[in-house]
Specification:
The chain contains one helix and twelve strands. With 170 residues, it is mainly beta. Strands 6-7-8-9-4-3-11-12 form an eight-stranded mixed β-sheet. The protein has a four-stranded antiparallel β-sheet with strand order 5-2-1-10, with no helix packed on it.
Length: 170
């Protein structure tokens, strides 16, 4: 049964809802992109159903960013990733990440979810994942109790949850 998530940016200029079958903030991405746009520790994303995204207000305030994959010798973007990160142009709050490769899913940043409050906890036996540590400096800590992976870790992510137990495959 999907959970309705209500979300907004910090200045409340952008507000949206979407449904999620997996509303648990279980993965902390610590790649270079998530740390730069999301903060020191990285970004925590939740998986939502793309077709259920409804903008309540602020479409004109949303800007999108395709992260740079490589730079030339003058630090000019040479190649960009296909995924786009939506953010508020007023307060810079990260809203969601979307990639056409996985068009059914949209990944709202847990930091912008207002309701439900609190979000459901990680199911018993589950573990927070700290991913993409291969592009993360050693001074960035791994949260206590989290499993760390240089890449994305086993499975396809939260969509690999085992339906009967509510735990993901590790």
């Amino acid at each position: 049964m999907p959970v309705l998530l209500e979300a907004s940016c910090h200045c409340k200029a952008v507000k949206y809802t979407l449904e999620s079958n997996t509303p648990v903030p279980y993965m902390l991405c610590q790649c270079s992109i998530c740390r730069k746009v999301g903060g020191y520790m990285g970004s925590v994303n939740i998986m939502g159903n793309t077709k259920t995204l409804k903008l309540i207000r602020g479409e004109d305030k949303i800007k999108k960013y395709n992260a740079v994959k490589s730079y030339d010798k003058d630090d000019k973007p040479k190649e960009r990733y296909g995924s786009e990160r939506a953010f508020c142009s007023e307060c810079s709050s990260m809203l969601w990440c979307f990639d056409e490769q996985w068009a059914d899913w949209i990944y709202p940043f847990a930091s912008c979810i207002d309701k439900p409050d609190p979000l459901p906890p990680i199911p018993e036996g589950g573990t927070m994942r700290a991913i993409k540590r291969d592009s993360c400096p050693s001074h960035v800590p791994i949260p206590e109790g989290a499993k760390a992976y240089d890449d994305y870790g086993p499975g396809k992510g939260i969509e690999d949850w085992h339906k009967s137990t509510g735990a993901w495959v590790d």
